[in-house]
Amino acid sequence: MLLVCMLSLVTFAACSTKKETTGKEKTLEKVRVGEVTHSLFYAPLYVALANGYFKEEGLDVDLQTTAGGDKTMTALLSNGIDIALVGSETTIYVYSQGAKDPVINFAQLTQTDGTFLVSRKKLDSFNWSDLKGKVFLGQRKGGMPQMAGEYVLKKYGIDPKKDLTLIQNVEFANIANAFASGTGEFVQLFEPTASIFEKEGKGYIVASFGKESGKVPYTSFMAKESYLKKNSATAEKFTRAIYKAQQWVDTHSAKEIAAAVTPYFKDTPADIMEKVIDRYKTQNSYATNPILDTDEWNNLQSIMKEAGELPKEVGHDVLVNTAIAEKVIGK
After folding, report:
1. Mind listing the pLDDT tens digit for each residue in 268-291?
2. What confidence category does residue 26 fall into, taking pLDDT thresholds of 50, 70 and 90?
3. Is the Cα torsion angle 210, 307, 122, 130 positive or negative in sign?
4. How far apart are CA 247 and CA 119, in angstroms?
5. What is the pTM (predicted TM-score) of this model?
6. What's residue 280's pLDDT?
7. Distance between CA 22 and CA 16 in Å, rounded?
8. What is the CATH number of domain 29-112+216-329?
9. What is the pLDDT of residues 202-244, one digit of tens each?
10. Closest to 217 in 3D by CA, of 92, 113, 116, 115
11. What does residue 33 show for φ and ψ, rounded to 5 degrees?
């Protein structure tokens, strides 16, 4: 009888442990994240998912692609998502419209433009003046890709309104298809689409807007001010997971990173993934920590002002929260 009782206690203990373990799994806090596009440009995000960094922090991240800055911000403002990964310029637009609950940037992911100039024809050599008189299929008006593109064109003495035919009324998600169908002689594309087009002979990468436009908080994680106040611990856990991924990406090769994020790009060939990631690493597109500093914020507004899209200048301390990131990295 004593032996039976002991065995029963062991069985009960084992069941209790299983329930406790299962309970812990069920207590993962769900966080809904909307990414403006699905691109290897956001490799650290997928590394955080693949390596389990979010789960280590007790978070269950539900990632969805919200395709375009306007749609992403609409989803955030309407509580369709909790956190948005989109260009920091969107927070300025929302603030300038008198938002009572402004959107705050709290963790930077990329620090350069992520687009490339693709030519329909293969060029033996390229000069930015080659764009003059041509049809250029650009990105959405007022979006960071388009503003960075115009900034670079002006840098090389090209007036985007006079020196070429600029098309910017195509939906973000349809730009690549429009170019593949014959629209434009040059196009501004994200990766891996640009490299895939090059491999298929549909276009040829001739320049990088990221190299030309300098450091800028191109894409960052943001949330409504009310969300951050109510869920400060969640935001900190989220940022810590991103920081772990940023450090991992910074210390690993393009081949290792490509292998890690493969589950999120099953239709992209391994050689393309490695080439794209190496290109982004080489031009320092991936931020190595989540802090969005003042210089980058000011450069963002300079680019917006140059494009005629800056409603009004907004102080770094108004729409950027660095306290969370600073706490995470121990600064």
Report:
1. 999 999 999 999 999 999 999 999
2. low
3. negative
4. 34
5. 0.85
6. 95
7. 10
8. 3.40.190.10
9. 999 999 999 998 889 999 999 999 999 999 999 999 999 999 9
10. 113
11. -120, 130
Q: Residue 95: CA atoms inside 13 Å, Cβ hemisphere, count? A: 23
HSE-up (13 A, CA, CB side) for residue 7: 4
Q: What is the pLDDT of residue 92?
A: 96
26 beta partners: none
The whole-angstrom separation of Cα 26 and Cα 249 is: 29
Q: What is the pLDDT of residue 19?
A: 41
188 within 8 A of 36, measured Cβ to Cβ: no
The average pLDDT across 171-193 equals: 92
For the stretch 57-114, pLDDT in tens is 999 999 999 988 889 999 999 999 999 999 999 999 999 999 999 999 999 999 999 9
pLDDT in tens, 152-177: 999 999 999 999 999 988 888 899 99
Considering the domain delimited by 115-213, tell me its CATH architecture.
3-Layer(aba) Sandwich (3.40)
Q: Tell me the two tokens of residue 13.
A: 């203990």
Residue 286: which of 33, 38, 45 has the closest Cα?
45
- 49/303 Cα distance (integer angstroms): 32
User: Do residues 261 and 48 lie in contact, with contact meaning Cβ atoms separated by under 8 Å?
Assistant: no
Structure tokens at 327: 């706490």
Side-by-side strand order, sheet with 219-224: 59-65, 29-35, 83-86, 219-224, 103-110
Site of tokens 């999120």: 264
The residue type of 113 is D
How many Å apart are CA 165 and CA 291, to the nearest integer?
A: 38
At position 225, the amino acid (one-letter code) is E
Instruction: Give span(s): CATH 3.40.190.10, the chain.
Output: 29-112+216-329, 115-213
Q: Which helix (H) or strand (E) holds 29?
A: strand 29-35
Cβ contact 46:18 at 8 Å: no
Rounded-to-integer distance, Cα 10 and Cα 297, Å:
60
> Got the DSSP string for 260-300?
HHGGG-TTS-HHHHHHHHHHHHHTT-B-SSS---HHHHHHH
